[in-house]
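Justification of resources, computational component.

The compute hours requested in this renewal are based largely on the per-chain cost of generating structure records like the one below. Each record pairs the submitted sequence with a full structure-token output. That output is archived, and it is also reused by downstream analysis tasks.
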Amino acid sequence: MSKKIHITELILRDGHQSLIATRMRTEDMLPICSKLDAVGFWSLEAWGGATFDACVRFLKEDPWQRLKKLRKALPNSQINMLLRGQNLLGYRHYSDDVVHAFVKQAADGGVDVFRIFDAMNDIRNLKTSIEAVKKVKKHAIGTLSYTTSPVHDIAYFVSMAKELEGMGCDSIGIKDMAGLLTPSVAGDLAKALKEATPLPIHMHSHATSGLASMVMLKSVENGVSIIDTCNSSFSEGASHPTTESMVAALKDTPYDTGLDLMKLQEITAYFKEVRKKYWQFESAFTGVDTRVLVNQVPGGMISNLSNQLKEQGALDKMDAVLAEIPKVRKDLGYPPLVTPTSQIVGTQAVLNVMTGERYKSITNEVKNYLLGQYGKSPANIDPAVKQLAVGNEEGITCRPADLLEPEMARLQAETERIAKNEEDVLTFAMFPDIGKTFLQERNAGSLKPEALLSKEDVATSSSRYAPNEFKITLHGETFHIKLTGSGHSGEEHRPFYVSVDGIAEEVIVETLSEIEVSGNGTTKGSTKKKTNAVGASGRPKPHHSGCVTTAMPGTIVAVKVKVGDKVKAGDGVLVIEAMKMENEIQAATTGTVVAIHVSKGDNVTPDESLLEIQPD
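The structure output for this chain reads:
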């Protein structure tokens, strides 16, 4: 009996998100849409995930207009999007009225299939999104965020799938975001799900560990009917199994997809040329990374941690951090390591290693997590860690969004002068700062996408250039930097005035070494000997036991004391943001605050004294 397998093609979303930082422009999608539309895919994933953010932040495209253009160019195809449950496409929970408004606009714009997931696998955080999708009569994929732990066994995911079926989902999706599935486990999971629910099963597995193609094969042999793959021009590595390869593997079997390899290869030829335009955004992590199978840390998270430790001159502690991550994850009840839980667990692990004492310093996000503000933890939380972090404070037991008041009226009022329609209001809701800037620039006709560099021009140029506008990617986040001025050359602590994502900042650069560039392009080195007792910012180095420092570079978000205040050892005196997490810095000694060297918004490093306490 034929068991035809359907394919969701990921080239327009997850493929370029995984390999070129979500930078493909709509203008490079539209010319090939007629051929994509003629293949016969079950769906084309073309929206959601990081595409909305990238359109607004970097490409200066209206994401809603992209959706409408794709809808028009793909008249015979279902358009699929990735939706983060109650987080939608932003990084916080939104009120239910915003969720309903967003889903309706997406459906009106052309989305047919919504793949809905939650980082905590908390069904409550999926409820409203599923209801909203069913209200507009579209297809809801209730998605399981796959991970491994003592509680995340097949029975766990089967139980979750049954709940999603009961909530009205049209199909069940397996989202293996880190490539942790092995072929045998994938087969067992698929078989168990197929026996437990009559709904179609989708398999989505990243190729990071090199196992995803085998995972797909075992999945279809055990009941999965739809697999997610990506055209070879943007497949494998951090992306997904190759569409053409899977079509060939299943051809002339009971699972034949019926898709035409010749049509697929025409699409491949097109996108191979397109990819060359985006060479500057190519990821260094494009190959197989089997470390994920040992430490269960996704490759992108490893690179972020590596950058963080390198910045502190502590790259030698990488192994210790990787060993600490599973311990922190266990303490927190085994959350899946996806945004935002990957940052929550990873940052706390770094703090535990850098301070030399587990949970000596605890981030605000960990505290919020322990209080239930991200949802219900999959397993029991370590009571000692919870007591240390939040004491006897009672956490919430309801769905986090139940505590949110309706927001649409407020958002409409805040955007009255810049929004032309509800789509604009929702763009602002997802990203208030960059969304507002985008809408203002659009209204003024001054939108300008980031430049695409020509590799040939860069390679053949005989002139030597210093960058004055560029991108920096740090901890998984990309910032747009533009140099607008600088202090006098030759100053040991030279100020540079820059614009970071449109916000004016002052950066102090302390010269430790210099190279001289001669006319023929050769260089000579020299080194400045550092003799002063201040850091790069001009703040004093720690010089007595009452000096308060940070374990990680970051930004001051709150100063909780003033000069003259009496504090006790353990009192919170500062709040710093590092790796997108907030961390309270505590007094190491009891005494009186005699000096404060920082203000809100200051960037700080571990080798500086941020605040001084005169011990009693």
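The first strand starts at residue 6 and ends at 9. Confidence is low (pLDDT under 50) at residues 514-532.
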